[in-house]
Specification:
A zinc finger (TRAF-type) spans 150-192. Probable adapter protein and signal transducer that links members of the tumor necrosis factor receptor family to different signaling pathways by association with the receptor cytoplasmic domain and kinases. Keywords: Cytoplasm, Metal-binding, Repeat, Zinc, Zinc-finger. This is TRAF-type domain-containing protein. This protein is an alpha+beta fold. It is built from 26 helices and 71 strands. The protein has an eight-stranded mixed beta sheet with strand order 43-44-46-45-47-48-49-50, covered by helices on one side. It is globular and about 115 Å long. Residues 280-307 and 380-398 have low confidence and may be disordered.
Length: 1285
């Protein structure tokens, strides 16, 4: 049977001119095909180009070179000319003749339509053949739409309302319903002749009817009489029945007493069972914790049968005199995957002379429990060694452990995402004030306005918890402020000694933002580390500790209201000696799922930590373990050119690679199955070192949710979960579409608690992206990009679908249903407000419009030092991520806000704010569907998946039309796509709100006119997609200028050519140059602010041009610091080069125009900064002081001044971020101004920090602002302060 599309093809072919619009290669009509052309204009359809270029990289007609489809241009002319062809309306054909030659129906449509107008005509054509609306009730009739009313008047399957019970009944069954089943119909009692409703008749008969014959209630006591219900009272009053009633009461009381005893026993058993369950749960949780903390121990556990015997001989021991602090280490003892050493202190470690200390030290492997014995013998006297031992540890190890006794100072208030403020800097700083004395320091959270030192002895070394409830009544503060008052910081300080042999250690602290380790023998030697604040499992860093030396650890402990919802906070730190030059961060290993026997996708990655003592500069090679099962099944191909890759000491680095099966005939991979990987690293001596890791695959079925991997915007491997559609919708006209589900704060995408709640949709892929990490950058910035890269990967590769079936699931990435919960609800609104033209609709549950409203920033101590101008400039750097300020973009979309009526986590106020704003701007009180669920809190089962939501999802099948009037808004073109086919490309004044108000009007001839009024817009464009039923023939911009052709982007855009900013006069011109302005001006790829540096592939280049080796070393450590926080917060990975190495790398492979670059050091210190500084409005002097705005501009000089600023690269398509200072303190402060998370406000286009930046936070900022469109100082977007203390 022919489809509707077949009918259209047939009608097109009847047009005499249709032959010239058949693809020259496949001869198909180009209806619904994309047409591409070579440089000489030779064209064919996209599918044919794909086949042709797969065999020969040239045009089949002129044989010009064509390397890929990406180098072809869309043949809009051919497509547009084709769409001018006239055909009869498909609804002109006979309703039922779909198999033979088409016959025109005299009752069909008579219109002739141009193909370009066909979709709009079909949307309105009343001759379309439709099924009866009552088909679900059984009606099989089909007819033209304009006949529907006459049919419904006689349709026997039309639903009608029963006048008695109000039930909906099909028309043909209504009489039968009334006479046989209607519960409200009056029927006559068979006994007493009274009338009663049918639904109440059973109750009447069983309880009321006086004439119904019933049995005596004492039937079980021997009375067998029957009588009418009206005679029951007289029957029971007989003496015989009173006696029987008394006996029944006695028996009932006996049963009650017995039941009470049984109930008491059951309650005791239940309590025992409950206690056992609680104990089992505690044991289970403890086991789970042990498994998490000791992940690999069960794989490597030394069994009782795995015994090892070793001998260690110390010659002439009794004849020698030993210095007081000397110690001896035995040769390594290898047992399984573990290595040990004996450590002997002849004079005792801490005891008086003539006593010894002997320790068993674990040097390789994770903590475990072992048993061992030591026999000590004097070979010269053939007897056991006679000296006394101070202690003999028969346990895990006597090695370096972190402290469990802490001095704590705090709490001090801190603001949300205010990570640099420290009040103790005003009194000398935490490294200089006395530790643990009686000194007190002012704090809003202390009695008498001060807090002092406290000492705590914690049971677990390296761990601590605190909420201050013994000294602070948080409910008292909670009343006026809200939960942002729970934000505090404190310093937790402890001392420890490095007792293991001198070596590198892996140090890692979870639930902490920053910590420091200070050498007590050299107090100026302080190492700073970033903690694994959200416990992602990838916070490992390196420190070298000298045996016998004392160290002090300073932990800056911060509370997190969003994590705990209270003032509670905690941390856990680990310190593990390491000898291997490389450690594998196994929590970061990533492979795709195996889905119904095939790899879901081809990308995978491992993450290495350089835990050695030298940089790895000779390249890294990864492959499969030779002759392993993996080697027999898979092939592995590296993505990076690892020969040009450096991994510095302490740097975490992710290596992406591709995997595939060797044999295409391998059709069914089965679990258990591991990917066994070998890493080869050449050290500085030329020795090749091998390291191994094994990654387990997860196997599942195509009908389940599964994990697929993809290359994200920075070429790192990320993952998403996906549910396939039920239908093979790729064969349908609209293809398959996409649902994007964004998770909440700390949500783990691969956790079943998230993905298992979703059901497969009929025609939608359900994509569940990660947002890079569990906290998802609040679905802004890098997280937002991650969403669309995950969708693009799904559409382009259809992960988990066999090659033979991919055609069945072809997907349209331009039609997306956005949903999300909590932080993901905010993400849902965020995606909708920025990419509305892609939206089928949205269902945003328990979301909020902006972070600074969810948790107020107003308690930030640093704000107390700055005026509103600087505060505004700082807040604008995150304002673009807010929903409310650009909520006009939501007008005309299909939206639902859902939340629990009693939500105590994200108050309904937040969702209601968005609802109100959209309704106001739509001038429609019902613009947003509101589902406020009674008696429910933040999350409840089905919040995104119950039948109510499913019905809503099913109703969203097409992109909604452009509203008659809509205002398109943006603060930053880098983060917003087109809305109503209008794309704002550049603002007149950057980071001021830009708007275009669109009003659609039809003139007297029926032509569509768009009236556009602009505010703060320098450039904008009209996009051809999404395809609309009708585009305007005329544009009228700002009421004056008229354009009568369709100028589609990227071929054309509109530019306000007036250069002067201090005017509201505008002169719009058509600009066909989309390259020159991008090279020289701010564009969406380079708009800033500073956080945009992390929205592309990145390299870090540190300077070596300084004559000061300490400056070079600090720059190098700064590069590692940035890499590691980007790796921790965003699963990013950066190649780090010195400036000289980068120049060498560019000579092999010039990537300078396709990547962002972070430059550590000014033009005196960094060769790359010096080469590119001409593109900025910053210039450096020989003494490292600098100007902003030229030599006649603003001079910044003196100690402790730092600067971080953006500038474009030489091609204009990517950014460079320069970080430098007038000295070491200045560089350090500038480094700490770089935003690490969403919501950090210290990242405009440029920021200048003063010497007290670490003390006063925002109050220590000397200058900040945003460049104009030419990367020059903008006086209207600029702040300067000359006194900060």
């Amino acid at each position: 049977m022919k489809t509707f599309n077949d009918k259209i093809y047939s009608l097109i072919s009847k047009n005499a001119n249709s032959d010239q619009y058949s693809c020259p290669e496949c001869k198909k009509l180009i209806y619904n095909l994309e047409i591409y052309q070579c440089l000489d204009g030779h064209w064919c359809c996209k599918d044919c180009w794909a086949v042709l270029l797969g065999t020969k990289k040239e045009c089949p007609q002129c044989e010009c070179k064509v390397e890929s489809i990406g180098l072809l241009s869309r043949s809009r002319y051919i497509e547009k000319e084709f769409l001018k062809l006239m055909i009869r309306c498909p609804n002109s054909l006979s309703m039922h003749n779909l198999c033979g030659d088409e016959e025109f129906d005299e009752n069909g449509c008579k219109d002739n339509i141009a193909l370009i107008d066909l979709p709009n005509h079909l949307d309105q054509c009343t001759y379309v053949v439709v099924k009866c609306p009552n088909s679900e009730n059984g009606c099989l009739e089909e007819f033209r739409q304009n006949s529907i009313e006459s049919h419904l008047q006689i349709c026997g399957y039309q639903m009608e309302t029963c006048m008695k019970c109000n039930d909906k009944i099909i028309r043909k069954s209504l009489d039968l319903h009334i006479h046989e089943t209607c519960l409200k119909e009056l029927v006559q009692c068979d006994y007493c002749d009274l009338f009663e409703e049918r639904g109440l008749m059973n109750h009447h008969l069983n309880c009321i009817c006086p004439d119904k014959i019933i049995e005596c209630i004492l039937k079980n006591e021997g009375c067998c009489e029957q009588f009418k219900r009206s005679e029951q009272a007289n029957h029971l009053l007989s003496n015989d029945h009173i006696s029987r009633l008394n006996k029944k009461v006695d028996k009932t009381l006996e049963r009650i007493d017995s039941s009470d005893l049984e109930i008491s026993e059951l309650i005791q058993k239940q309590n025992l069972f409950s206690n056992q369950l609680l104990e089992n749960g505690r044991i289970l949780n403890q086991s789970r914790t042990d498994l998490i903390n000791q992940k690999e121990i069960t794989k490597q556990l030394i069994s009782k049968n795995n015994k090892e015997k070793n001998t260690w001989e110390i010659l002439n021991y009794t004849k020698r005199t030993f210095p007081k602090d000397i110690s001896f280490s035995s040769p390594k003892i290898t047992v399984g995957n573990y290595e040990f050493q004996l450590l002997l202190f002849p004079n005792g470690e801490t005891s008086p002379p003539k006593k010894c200390s002997l320790y068993l030290v674990l040097t390789k492997g994770k903590k475990c429990e072992i048993s061992f014995s030591v026999s000590i013998k004097n070979n010269e006297k053939n007897n056991y060694f006679s000296r006394k031992f101070e202690d003999l540890v028969i346990d895990y190890i006597k090695s370096t452990t972190l402290p469990n006794v802490y001095n704590v100072i705090g709490p001090f208030p801190i603001g949300e995402r205010e990570e640099i403020y420290d009040t103790l800097e005003s009194y000398g700083g935490i490294f200089n004030i006395p530790i643990g004395d009686n000194t007190t320091y002012p704090s809003e959270l202390g009695h008498d306005s001060v807090v002092g030192w406290s000492t705590y002895n914690w049971s677990i070394p390296g761990a601590f918890q605190m909420e201050w409830s013994s000294t602070i009544d948080w409910s008292f503060y909670d009343m006026p402020f809200g939960w942002e008052i729970y934000l505090w910081y404190a310093y937790v300080i402890g001392d420890f000694t490095a007792t293991s042999p001198s070596s590198n250690y892996i140090v890692n602290c979870t639930d902490i933002r920053t910590f420091y380790i200070q050498s007590q023998s050299n107090p100026s030697e302080i190492f700073e580390f970033s903690g694994d604040f959200f416990n992602y499992g990838n916070g490992q860093q390196i420190i070298y500790l000298n045996q016998g030396e004392q160290y002090r650890i300073y932990l800056k402990m911060l509370s997190s209201t969003r994590v705990y919802g209270t003032a509670f906070s905690q941390f856990t730190c680990n310190l593990i000696p390491i000898e291997d030059m490389v450690s594998i961060i196994e929590t970061e290993s990533l492979v795709p799922d195996i889905v119904s026997g095939i790899l879901a996708s081809k990308y995978a990655s491992i993450t290495l930590l350089n835990s050695g003592e030298t940089d790895l500069t000779s390249g890294v090679t990864i492959g499969l373990v030779e002759n392993s099962t993996s080697d027999q099944i898979f092939e592995l191909n590296s993505i990076l050119n690892t020969s040009l890759t450096n991994i510095l000491v302490g740097q975490r680095f992710s290596i992406p690679f591709e995997i595939s099966t060797k044999d295409d005939n391998i059709s069914s991979l089965q679990c258990p199955l591991n990917l066994e990987i070998q890493i080869l690293i050449t050290d500085q001596t030329g020795t090749i070192n091998s390291f191994f890791t094994s990654i387990a695959f997860n196997c599942t079925e195509f009908t389940n949710a599964y994990l697929y991997t993809f290359l994200d915007f920075d070429q790192s491997v990320q993952y998403a979960m996906v549910l396939s559609p039920i239908n093979q919708c790729g064969l349908e006209d609209g293809l398959c579409n996409v649902m994007v589900a964004t998770h909440g704060f700390l949500g783990v995408t691969r956790d079943p608690s998230w993905f298992a709640q979703f059901q497969r949709q009929q025609n939608l892929w359900t994509v569940m992206p990660t947002g890079r990490t569990n906290c998802g950058y609040d679905w802004a910035s890098s997280s937002r990009l991650n969403v669309f890269y995950s969708v693009e990967s799904l559409v382009s590769s259809l992960p988990g679908v066999p090659n033979s079936q991919k055609q069945l699931y072809k997907t349209d990435a331009s039609k997306i249903l956005f949903i999300g919960h909590s932080m993901g609800g905010m993400g849902c609104w965020n995606l909708l407000v920025r990419q509305g033209d892609l939206a089928l609709g949205g269902a945003c549950a328990s979301g909020f419009p902006k972070l600074s409203m969810y948790i107020s920033y107003e308690t930030s101590p640093g704000f107390s030092y700055i005026d509103q101008t600087l505060k505004a400039l700082l807040m604008v750097s995150i304002e673009e991520n807010n929903v409310d300020i650009i909520s006009s973009n939501l007008v005309g979309l299909k939206l639902m806000a859902r939340y629990g009526e009693n939500d105590t986590v994200v108050n309904p106020y937040h969702s209601r704010r968005i609802v109100r704003m959209v309704a106001e701007q739509s001038q429609d009180e019902n613009a947003v569907i509101v589902s406020e669920v009674p008696n429910e809190n933040h999350y409840f089962p089905g919040i995104l998946t119950d039948s109510y939501m499913q019905a809503y999802y099913d109703s969203l099948t097409s992109i909604p039309p452009i509203p008659k009037t809509i205002t398109i808004s943006t603060l930053n073109p880098s983060g917003t796509g087109p809305r109503a086919n209008i794309l704002i490309l550049q603002l007149t004044i950057p980071f001021r709100l830009a708007k275009i108000k669109l009003t659609q009007v039809y003139d007297s001839t029926g032509e569509l006119i768009w009236y556009l009024d602009t505010q703060n817009v320098k450039r904008f464009a009209i996009t051809a997609e999404p395809v609309r039923a009708e585009f305007p023939t005329t544009l009228v911009i700002d009421g004056k200028q008229q354009f009568n052709n369709q100028y589609f982007y990227p071929e054309y855009h509109f530019e306000n050519s007036i250069q002067q900013q201090r005017t509201n006069q505008k002169n719009w011109t058509i600009n066909a140059d989309n390259s020159t302005w991008i090279q020289n001006e701010k564009n969406p790829s380079t708009y800033g602010p500073i956080r945009q540096i992390f929205e592309s592939s990145i390299k870090i280049v540190y300077g070596t041009a300084s004559q000061n080796n300490q400056t070079i070393a600090q720059a190098k450590q700064a590069a590692i610091y940035i890499n590691n926080f980007w790796n921790n917060y965003g699963r990013g990975s950066v190649t780090i080069f010195s400036d000289q190495q980068y120049i060498e790398q560019l000579s092999h492979q010039d990537t300078s125009c396709s990547e962002n670059v972070i430059l550590i050091g000014n033009s005196n210190e960094n060769l790359i900064t010096n080469k590119n500084i001409i593109r900025s409005d910053v210039s450096f002097n020989q003494d490292n002081s600098f100007y902003i705005g030229g030599e006649d501009g603003y001079l910044f000089e003196g100690d402790g001044i730092g600067i971080a600023f953006l500038m474009p690269n030489r091609c204009g398509g990517n950014l460079m971020l320069v970080i430098s200072g007038t000295d070491s303190l200045g560089l350090n402060n500038a480094l700490h101004s770089i935003p690490q998370r969403s919501g950090d406000i210290t990242g405009p286009d440029f920021i200048v920090t003063g010497p007290d930046f670490r003390g006063k936070g925002y109050g220590g900022i000397i200058s900040a602002g945003y460049w104009d469109n030419y990367y020059k100082l903008s006086e209207s977007n600029f702040y300067i302060s000359e006194i900060t203390n």
